[in-house]
Amino acid sequence: MGLFDVFKGGGSGLAKHITRVANKRAQQHERSESIQVLANDGSEEALRGLLTRFNLRVDPSITDGEEKNAAFLGVVQNGEAALGPVHDFLASSDTLAWPLKILKEIQSEEEVTTTLLELLSKMDTEYERDPQKKVDVIASLEERKDPRIVGAVSRFLEDMNETVRFYAVGAILAQDEAVAALEAMTKALVAEESVRVRIRMLDGYVEHAWTLGDAKEAASKKMPTGYTLGKKGEVRKKP
């Protein structure tokens, strides 16, 4: 019987390794051993414990990166069995990068997008102390193409956080269906106080040859330096 066989199937031994993986005061070689034990166990309990390594940061950074990469590979090797634990971890954790990286390995692009949209659907546009996870989700959607994205992201054009609004604009403009958000974008532009968000919106108007229509007069008061409006409300960017 090998070392990993001793712990396979859970029990107090498995609990010890789950605790050790999340303990920054543990010795590096002990955490590394526990990462491998949990990865080879492959049970739901073990995988949930392994995922907690992504909530921990240790010094030096090279060790932290090596351990997280080992945890990443350990989760991925279990394939679809890891989906439940990863989805739950994604929903409850402030960390997005690593679980998203895992999902990209074991799900299709469409499935990953569905996961992100489901996560976003549970978020609101009100003030929150740390909106970084919301920012990360919307920024990730900007890198994807899916007809569902525009509808899901449009409400965040009115988010209380400026950075969220900035990435919401980018996620919408990256889609082939961006025009579906034109009315919402125009309304948001007229109300927007952030110059960088307005500039990102206006660059979208230029790129898509959109006009501001009835909002031309109100929008004219929101033109940052370097942008003008034509007679029909078309946005022009000075060379």
Describe the structure.
- This protein has about 240 residues and is mostly helical.
- About 60% of the residues lie in helices and about 5% in strands.
- The protein has 14 helices and 2 strands, in the order ααααααααααααααββ.
- It has helices spanning about 5, 10-20, 30-40, 45-50, 60-75, 85-90, 95-105, 110-120, 130-140, 150-155, 160-175, 180-190, 195-210, 215-220, and strands spanning about 225-230, 235.
- The chain has a two-stranded antiparallel sheet with strand order 1-2.
- A hairpin with a 5-residue loop joins strand 1 (about 225-230) and strand 2.
- Helix 3 runs parallel beside helix 5, helix 4 packs parallel to helix 6 and helix 11 (about 160-175) runs parallel beside helix 13 (about 195-210).
- It is elongated and about 75 Å long.
- The model is unreliable at about 1-10 (pLDDT under 50).
Keywords:
two-stranded antiparallel ribbon; 14 helices; 60% helix; single chain; 239 residues; mainly alpha; disordered N terminus
Low-pLDDT segments, ≥5 res = 1-11
* Principal-axes shape call: elongated
- Name the strands of the widest sheet in spatial order: 1-2
Largest sheet: 2 strands, antiparallel
Element pattern in H and E: HHHHHHHHHHHHHHEE
Structural class: mainly alpha
β-sheet strand percentage = under 5%
Number of strands: 2
Write the layout of secondary structure elements.
Layout (H helix, E strand, L loop, with lengths): L2 H5 L4 H10 L6 H14 L2 H8 L9 H16 L6 H10 L4 H10 L2 H13 L10 H11 L6 H5 L8 H12 L8 H10 L3 H14 L7 H5 L6 E3 L5 E3 L2
Antiparallel strand pairs: 1-2
Helix pairs in contact: 2-3, 3-4, 3-5, 4-6, 5-7, 6-7, 8-9, 9-11, 11-13
